Fold:
Amino acid sequence: MEEQTVNMSTQSEDPNAGGNVRGETQAELTVAEPGQTHAQAADGKEQAGDGHDSKEASTADMEGPSKGVDDPLMENMSMQQLYEESLRSLQEGEVINGTIIQVTKDFVLVDVGYKSEGQIPIQEFVNEEGVVTASVGDQIDVLLESREDEDGEIRLSKEKAAKIKVWDEIRRAYNDGEVIRGLISARVKGGYTVDIGVPAFLPGSQVDLRPVKDMDALVGKTLDFKILKYNKRRSNVVISRRVILEEARLSARSETLEKIRSHETIKGVVKNITDYGAFIDLGGLDGLLHITDMSWGRVKHPSELVRIGDEITVKVLNFDPETERVSLGLKQLKSDPWTEASERYPAGTRVRGHVVSLTDYGAFVEVEEGIEGLIHLSEMSWTKKIRHPSMVLSVGDEVEAMVLDIDPPRKRISLGLKQVEPNPWEVIGEKYPVGTIIEGKIKNITDFGVFIGIDEGIDGLVHISDLSWTKRVKHPSEIFKKGQEVQAKVLKIDQENERFSLSIKHVTPDPWEEVPRKYKIGSRITGAITNVTDFGVFVEVEEGIEGLIHVSEISSEKIKTPVGHFNTGDAITSKVINVNRKERKLGLSLRRLEEDSEKATIRDYLSSSSTSFPNLGDLLKENNQLLQRESDSEDEE
Structure:
């Protein structure tokens, strides 16, 4: 019987490992010849005999007690010998099963079938909460570190046994391509640390099929992984979750393609959102849901309707087998609302909606999803001049409007805001008939007149020509101020063009009505000179009424211009020669007044003669003297 001593070392089956799976623990083992037990090989002297006896002992050891009872060798062996032989088969560095027989303050005693119990520090049984998890009678796996120390006790380790089992599990999972579960315990540079029994590294690129935005959100989660590579000697394990996801993606791809080809509705998960749409994971294949296919209504950004991670149902619009591009639609799951819009919203219908947009020319109101109507600036108010819709509306306002016109083929609806309220111009004529005297404040002054507030939103215009009967007004601001209370008379109401004409001067009688009676032709009147021009002299005969002495009516002698001969403010007496009430003109004359004066003088002279009549020579002489005196008088002036 020969004893062979061999150097046992279990190497990693991983080509990347570069070292031992269980370390380089070596043990000198005694290898038995065929037919020998390990105990017999280790103690040859005690079990010496010929080959036949050794084979019988070996056979009895393998076949068990049922055959050993009849074996002569087994009968001669004492129970002590059998116990010692079983103990000799335990090897240091071996993982064995044991039973907890006692739990003390510092140690846990475990019976592993050796002649003495093994000790394990109590710390190996304390969990994260500080609770001892060991109980008497529990079956546990332990590592035999040494069979007997200097005190005659064997040393065991539960943690090291667990690590050895973990590395065995890692090797098996790597070789068989199996899944291993682990807890993502912390975030580190470039990825995560994952607890799979030993610390493992999960690269950031292997976490998901797409980049993870919130890396911290995965910490604390337990997930499935696959081993990419490992090295036990360096305690290095690299794992991946992406590999599992890609495998699941590929397995679902064929089913997804079948559904896509038939243009069916299909469920998917929102994978990514851009400004122009959202990418939907259909299961092994991504499809684009364009922003224009999300809703029949207005969508400013896809994030208004979907969020990353949402599971939604979409309709396949188009599929290109060559490029494997899929176009999806969400709004196509519903019918186009414009197909029945004319029946639901005929002209004259009142509708409610929300303002979704404002432009320079009006406001768009969403009546329902996919149907928007335009309220033009001109349809916002009966009375106010709206320059921009923001003067009366804001985005988000809920409004009531009336349908004015609908054009389903062009997808247009014209709405009116003012039509919801009664038109004040339809009743203004009844409230303020022509000839009515009204009182109001001047709201605005322009070059051509003043605007007076009448009712809410309705202003009346007093033209500059209707401000005064008598004054020549160059600008209304000469006699009126903004905010001034005035009275005016209604002249005309134009409901169609929404115009209200007023007059301030018509509140009082027209003074020219009395001019023909007060200033008859041929009468003498005295007034103050108000203006001297090249063509004549203006004389105010009473407040607001002026007469004109034309240059031809100033003197019997020809005068080119009266300027320089008359001064403004001087009183002057003239003769009325013309009255035109319609044209408001009063003609005056100095020349004719002088002629009348001369004639009167002659008459007076002739009537004063007592008995005889003067001869012609005397009359001519006297007339010449009179003319000379008048000429001298004019020269002195």
Notes: The first strand starts at residue 4 and ends at 8. The chain is about 20% helix and 35% strand.
